[in-house]
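Sanity check record (used in CI):
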Amino acid sequence: MKEVPDTVVCPGCDAIYSRAPLQPRDVAHCPRCGTELARHPGQQQRRILPLTVACLIMFAIANLFPIVEIELQGLRSQTTLAGAVVALTAEGMSVVALLVLATTILFPFLQLCILAYLLVPLSRERRPAGFALLVRAMQSLRPWGMIEVFLLGVLVAIVKLSSMATVVPGPALWAFMALTVMLTAVLSFNPGAFWEMTFRPKAPDAGADEGGASA
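Expected output for Paraquat-inducible protein A:
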């Protein structure tokens, strides 16, 4: 198959266009169907790595500390997300426990780890090993991270339990809220930008240019 550089194919109507350089905040749309073709990343590359690190910190807090503390008739109970998975398994709901484990712990953690693994070398203009495979894996994992759905379920449960018992939000609940907001920003990063960051032509060395001119 012949490769044609500097071209872009519209995902909406398969029209082929020449790739035009974009200025900051520019967005290219298909003239035929209006589908977005490209978007200037702006400062997104510089922001995404610190956000990823912050997400990993919030993820650790959300999984190591209690989500809520419930007090009923003098008895107190608190649990972490991992404890909730264990409790579901003990109650015979192994399928539900597996879904909670996969969608709220395993898949989001893998996404963040892949992002950090890709972004650290790319920030130094080096391509990490397994680049193509990991970018595709991250795209495949995206629909399966459901921390926001879990957070919504926890908030609904807290509202219902508040009429029967004293419910005190734990550190993990606040961490989950912060994590949901930051993950929204992190996962809005277009994976296609990884290819541009990796295969874009490097800027010529100013010193080399001056030396060539003086020669």
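Residues 132 and 195 are 9 Å apart (CA to CA). If this sentence no longer matches the regenerated tokens, the check is flagged for review.
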